[in-house]
Design a protein that fits this description.
There is one protein chain. The protein has 6 helices and 5 strands; from the N terminus they run H-E-H-E-H-E-H-E-H-E-H.
């Protein structure tokens, strides 16, 4: 017969198995000072197949950073370029500096592409761009392309 394990050993084996093979949930974090923009993006993500309870909202970079600090799950962060308290590049740097968020995906939601801030955001780690105004089909296409839903 094989080795008999104690309950503590079995619990430890189970924990290691879960860490190795079970994926964490992916959350969407919508960062925009305008509630209407957040709601429109949220509706588009739900239509594309995202589950409502995995969509979080933040009004500014500080709130977004706090939410990232409290949650070890992977985030897909949709952010506008200019936030009330900072720009998108600083938000990317703040969230990526949090444990467990080094590989989060960042999508810039803006109508401005020629702005120097846009270029800084891309250099900081923006993965994709979604133009404003939000169009449901573009959100769905991006979500499928990035394998988010």
């Amino acid at each position: 017969m094989g080795k008999k394990f104690t309950l503590e050993e079995l619990v430890e084996i189970q924990k290691k198995f879960e860490e190795m093979f079970l994926e964490k949930d992916t959350y969407f974090l919508l960062v925009d000072r305008q509630i209407g923009s957040r709601r429109g993006l949220k509706n588009a993500l739900v239509k594309a197949g995202a589950e409502d309870h995995y969509i979080l909202e933040a009004n500014d970079a500080m709130d977004a950073t706090i939410q990232a600090s409290r949650n070890q799950n992977t985030f897909v962060v949709f952010t506008e370029l200019k936030l009330p308290d900072t720009d998108a590049d600083k938000l990317v740097e703040r969230i990526k500096s949090k444990p467990g968020h080094e590989n989060d995906v960042f999508v810039l939601v803006t109508g401005e592409k020629s702005d120097a801030r846009f270029k800084k955001a891309v250099q900081a780690g923006i993965t994709a761009h979604l133009p404003k105004p939000i169009v449901d089909t573009e959100v769905a296409s991006l979500a499928k392309k990035l394998k988010l839903v």
